[in-house]
Amino acid sequence: MNLEKILDIAMEKDASDVHLISGNKPMLRIARDLVPVPESKILTPEDMFEVYDTLVKGNVDKDEVFNATRKLDMSYTHRDIRLRVNISLSDDIPLCTLRLIKNELPSYESLGVPDIVRRMTYQPQGLILVTGKTNSGKSTTLNALVNYINENQNKKILTLENPIEYKHHSKKSLIVQKEVGKGRDILTFSDGVKNSLREDCDILVIGEIRDKITMEAAIEMAESRTLSNRNTSYKIMCRNNRQNDKLL
Hints:
alpha/beta; Beta-Lactamase; Rossmann fold; six-stranded antiparallel β-sheet; five-stranded parallel β-sheet; 7 helices; globular; disordered C terminus
C-alpha cells in the first residue's frame, strides 16, 4: 500500500481526515462525507502493519506507549503539511485516523466567534475553556486565538500539546510549544502545568484536559498571582472534549 499516494490524493481533494481500516478501502472525509480513495484496494492486515511501521518509524518510545496503552497519538509530516495521527486496534490489527492540518490558520475574525471571546484574551487573569464535540473546530479556534495574541500582544505563551498540530512562530509575543508524552518534551500535561510556574510565561495553553490532576493544576495556576516570585497575573487557555466536561 502506498501511503504517500493516499495522502497526496487527500491533499488534492481537500480532505480533512484519512481513515485506514483493515477490510475496507482507504476513506477520505470530505465536507463531512466519507468517500473511498479512487482506484484503491481493500486494505489487508499486512497493509495496516506496514502503515504502522511507516508512521512510527522504529521509534522505541512510541512503540512502547502503543503496546502498553493500545493507542497512540502522534504527529506526522507529509511533504509540507503536518498530520495528527491516532493509531488504535480493532481485532488486534492497527487502524489509523489521520487529520490533515492546514499550514495557514484562518483569521480569528473569519471564524464567526463572538467578539467577547477575543476581548477575553486581554484580561490579566483567568481560565478560558474551548469545548465541543469532535470536528467542531476546537483546535482551529484555540490556535486562531493563540495566533491573534501572538500578533497583537507582547506576552510569553507556553503551549502543552499531544501532538503539536499548528506550528507557531514568535511574532509580537514569545511562544514556546511543548509536546507531551513519553520520549517527548514533557511526560504529562499535569507535569507541564506545574513546571510552567518556573518558566515565567504569561499565558499557558493546555491542548487537552484529560484527567482530574491536570484540571486541578490548571485551576490552581489560573488563580495564582505569584508567578516566578513576582506579582503578576496568569491566564490559562484549554481545549477540552465535551465528554470530559464532567471533570469540571
